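On clarity, I found the account of how folds are encoded harder to follow than it need be. For illustration, here is how one protein appears when written out as sequence plus structure tokens.
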Amino acid sequence: MAGYDDRDGFIWMDGELVDWRAANVHILTHALHYASSVFEGERCYNGKIFKSVEHSERLRKSGELLDMELPYSVAEIEAAKEATLKANNLTDAYVRAIAWRGAGEDMGVASKKNPIRMAVACWTWGNYYGDAKFKGAKLDIAKWKRPSPETIPHAAKAAGLYMICTMSKHAAEAKGCSDAMMFDYRGYVAEATGANIFFVKDGEVHTPKPDAFLNGITRQTVLGMLRDKGVTVHERHIEPAELEGFQQCWLTGTAAEVTPVGQIGDYNFEVGALTREIATDYEQLVRR
């Protein structure tokens, strides 16, 4: 496919649809220099964005956490996403809504005089991890750790928080891996670079407590599915030494959906029955 800057179609920007190639910002846009940007990744299935309102609500909340109140309501964000999908004639797509501080009177760390801008783009996108969704992804262990919530707004889906994720994933891909698992600042298991993580041991599920990383919408959905099935779930701090004792593992995220993990560093996992069941059930849920 062509690069993301050179495609046919339309992108919604600041209240109107513009030609894809004309959806540009000035080089002195504040977000480019100081990471003042928040975003959402969403998937549309059969013409309906899964958990769309929850994503729009979180976008606004992320903006508030970065001291940049979005000039659009949840209803207006919903309408923008619908208009973008319709303009591009897509019913199954990935949807990216993003808000940022634009160029304006300020060009420094402080930027209260600069406008808050917003855009929505959408495109067709297959499995985030390719065929790993069926055979199990291979993960590296990142050298970077998720920071303390005293140092970052960890509940915000903010662009700046992904810097170490990008570096970690690049290092993983150089080793032939699909992604990397990250520890948090205390040394507990945290998440992958763009997805939450679950483990299975003796029929029970263990997943890291989201007190230093984003509590994903897909993560919350899968937790609800597990509890509806009567599966015992432990949300807790997980020590690195425990990885050896887990039998199954999977990742969750809007892009990742539910992706089995076959290996993390030197630890191996089976793509077991519960993993396959949750992946299948999630696929059915989002397409209802």
User: Anything to note?
Assistant: Helices lie at 30-34, 52-65, 74-87, 132-135, 163-174, 217-228, 273-286.
